[in-house]
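FIELD: query
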Amino acid sequence: MGSGNISRTLNFIKQEVKEDGIMLENYPEIMSVDQLAEALHICKNNAYALLNTNEVGCKRIGRRIIIPKICVIDYLRSAQIKSFNADKPVI
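FIELD: result
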């Protein structure tokens, strides 16, 4: 991933992760894979990759995948924390 892509992703995360905790307000409490991909501005295959690696929590009911919105919010917050800590020198 080039530095331009990382910068765009970090800017997107900063827009989505608001201090008052209100995020993704246009999405339902239980999201689909399509909605996850749309919310994160990624393709469906990358959304499935996030789910398969447990980076974003989900539940499988038969063949259906449901994603609690809070799991997406947690993922965005963890990405923000990781990017913040990346700027700190390791002592």
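FIELD: remark
The first helix runs from residue 3 to 16.
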